[in-house]
Amino acid sequence: MNLDDLTRTSGEWLRGTGPESDIVMCSRIRLARNLNDFPFINRASRLERTEIESVVKSSLPHLDDDLRFLDVNNLSKLDCLFLKERQLISGELANADGPRGVAFSPHENVSIMVNEEDHLRIQVMLSGLSLQEVWERINRLDDQLEERMAYAFSSTLGYLTACPTNVGTGIRVGVMLHLPALVQTKQIDKVFRALQKINLAVRGLYGEGTQAFGDFYQISNQQTLGKSEQELIRNISEVVPQIIEYERKARQQLVSEKRQHLHDQVSRAYGVLKTAHTISSEETMHLLSSVRMGINLGLIDDLAIPTVNELFIHTQPAHLQKIQGSPLVVDERNVARASYLRSRLSNGRAPAEE
Amino acid sequence: MTCQRCHEEAAVHLTETVDGRRRELHLCVPCAREAGLSLPASPPKLGLDQVVQGLIVAHVGELVGELAELTCPDCGVRFMEFRTLGRLGCPTDYQVFARGLLPLLGRSQGATRHVGKSPRRPSVASDRPRLRLRSEFRAAIALEDYERAASLRDQLRSKDADR
């Protein structure tokens, strides 16, 4: 597999389709699974990790999903970061060492990390609010994997994981939301406090411990034991529409009370992105967030949502360097980023090829 | 305080609320017995030892007591290591450390029993002979006992072939 080819495409989950996709970027579920007769990763030798890898690899041809395996241990640091920016692997897998890998589908909806914190971290992501569909897909994939390997499972404690915070269902149900109006109207903290009270976690674009770039927030369950997968999915599915409702109200409030100001902010953001000659990743995310909201409110009509979604990912450091084909230091990246944005936004409607 | 009946020193103090009205009763031991209150023959044992033990266990106890020294026979992780690193070493740890893990799960997850999906062919703990063989294999390598390591590797291979 040639990773350079991926710079011309983007994951299907960035397509901007599906229910509520103006606010819900994507729905994601991951399952933590371990093989019954191997120690967990932190106690497994290199040899054992290689064996785990081959157990998973040998199961791939028998799955309905077309998954290709990539040996992460042999990748450069840049390629690891590139996969992380695309949400195909976690920071932990990118930065670890020793035998480890990822198998993923051509549309990048499905990925299986091997030898991360657990032997298998299975992930399915779809654009928009579609948790039930995501669950059906990941559940089927999990069933098919289980036919090929014995999972560590206890009848009382469920799926056994390296960290007890995942034991039981091993499930993390998450929805990535774009909430620029709640941030601007300073109501976002109130939402977070309410979510924490009902035991839901709020994280940034790249998961645990990361900052919320571009007003994207991931909301997910923390509890994994004592509630069924369906209950946990239902919990999130009931809460998310309320947050969407708050965000819509906040957007309407901005439109009705500060229309001129909002239109000005969105147009300036678009203007800067189209004309800048050097721009940081942070400023890009911030401005793209305004532009994304502007399109959804009908204030910009010559740019498509999938293009903006894709720019959030393609303007990040590893992507820029892969697109340029050479390593770049920060200042060079800022220049390359501005140039890439100018070229992509000059013919706004065209997203990258599928 | 004196006994409300005989003016000896009161030893039994009762407070009761009847129809929203609070009533206090102070009696010496003989008067209390006469009034039909059953008293323990000797003063209750405070059980200071147990209280102190409880405090130690609640704060640092699990790290200094026998629980801390519990070691998994399959992966060699001690409970104390898990508490320091936050990661378990193998599936068997959940059985070996159950006494320490269940209260932790109760606190962090609010539950100690799985509800939800199960594998169609559930594995059981006794299905893990390979885990044990592997840990013995690692130990043999560490001790440079290559003869034993080779025999263990052969056993592992024959089990792989059975799979």
Instruction: Identify the biggest protein-protein contact and residues per side.
Output: A-B, 44 and 41 residues
CATH superfamily of the largest domain in chain A: Glutamine synthetase/guanido kinase, catalytic domain
Sheet with the most strands: spatial strand order of chain B: 1-2
Strand and helix order of chain B: EEHHHHHHHH
Strand segment count of chain B: 2
| Percent of residues in beta strands of chain A | 5-15%
- Most strands sheet of chain A: 8 strands, antiparallel
How would you sum up the major sheet of chain B? 2 strands, antiparallel
Indicate the percent of residues in helices of chain B. Answer: 40-55%
Number of structural units classed as domains of chain B:
3
Global shape of chain B: elongated
Strand content of chain B: 5-15%
CATH class of the largest domain in chain A: Alpha Beta
Quaternary status: heterodimer
- Note the overall shape of chain A: globular
Quick tags:
heterodimer; A: 354 residues; alpha+beta; two-stranded antiparallel ribbon; 12 helices; 45% helix; globular; B: 163 residues; mainly alpha; 3 domains; 8 helices
Detailed description of the structure:
The complex is a heterodimer of chains A (354) and B (163). With 354 residues, chain A is an alpha+beta fold. Chain A folds into two domains: 248 residues, Glutamine synthetase/guanido kinase, catalytic domain (Creatine Kinase, Chain A, domain 2), CATH 3.30.590; 88 residues, no CATH class. Chain A is 45% helix and 15% strand. In chain A, helix 9 runs antiparallel to helix 10 and helix 11 crosses helix 12. Chain A is globular. In chain B, strands 1-2 form a two-stranded antiparallel ribbon. Chain B is elongated, with a radius of gyration of 30 Å. Chain B folds into three domains: 38 residues, no CATH class; 50 residues, no CATH class; 36 residues, no CATH class. The chains are: A alpha+beta (354), B mainly alpha (163). At the A-B interface, helix 5, strand 6, strand 7 and helix 8 of A face helix 6 and helix 7 of B.
